[in-house]
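Tutorial, part two.
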Amino acid sequence: MLETSARLLKLLSLLQAHREWSGPELSGRLGVSARTVRRDVDRLRELGYPVHASPGTGGGYRLGVGAELPPLLLDDDEAVAVAVGLRTAAGQGIAGIGDASVQALAKLEQVLPHRLRRRVGALNSSTVSMLRTAGADAVDPAVLTELAAACRDAERVRFAYVGHGGEPSRRTVEPLRLVCSERRWYLVAWDTDRDDWRTFRVDRITLKPPHGPRFRPRTPPADDLAAYVSRGVSRRAYATEAVVRLLVPVAEARQRISPTAGMLEADGEQTCLLRAGAVSLDVMVWHIASTGFEFEVLEPDALTDSLRAVRARLDRALRRSSTAGAPRTPRTPDGADRTRGTPSGSGAA
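Running the prediction step on this input gives:
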């Protein structure tokens, strides 16, 4: 009986971890016959878990949506990781998730063993949050989870989208991955109408169900999707691009320049290259100068002209400021210049 119970828990865990399993796959994972798998599935159904089965050679088993949440089977490290994730979830730009995170964390701590409650409690009492407040670009949790499910299940998604310049459009995409920066969420997907890969800001997406059909996943546009999104949001979305050499090591530059502000790559031990985009060359000048690093322009040549023009404006501003701020010569009530002695015609008493 104990062996059967342990096997049922393992079967439930497998069904939770994957959308659909074939009978032979479950038999191999559990080390039992297909008949035993069918019998265990029937036992789970008797316990109230909605396990759906599709017939045929391409069929399999999947856990459906039930009236109650099935128990989560977590090891120690997973449980602590979930607690940490719930604590920091409010800072990831997801609208309305803060209260839900607190409630879920409270429920989790109720069922944690004492040793894990101490670990989580020590973490909570020893950390101070500097999470940003979600603004107008906060993501609806329902949209985020729906997109995540579509990525997992390789299911086409339809949505209305507002572009960088405010232009509306309708899209049908094959979603690949969600990428989160320190400020925003992005969806990397194959746009079926444009026949190319695109990156979408999730806060600009309005889903338009129904979704589907299923699709065969394509080869990703890059091995490093985080770098791919960084290139897109820091360069390709802007009218002007530039490459400058920063006179600091790349590790130091990364402490100030986020992936969404530009792409950094090493250029020797003491210098690095910054590739960035901006709406104009003048804005690019201020963007680069705001890093606080010494630099030299590599491309485009016109950026050097913009640097000279900005320097000239700054020089003029400094001269005007110096003139306006110069101390004025103090005068007496009768108009005498204090620096030149007493007024003409007067004498000492």
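The first strand starts at residue 51 and ends at 53. In part three we will examine how such features are distributed along the chain.
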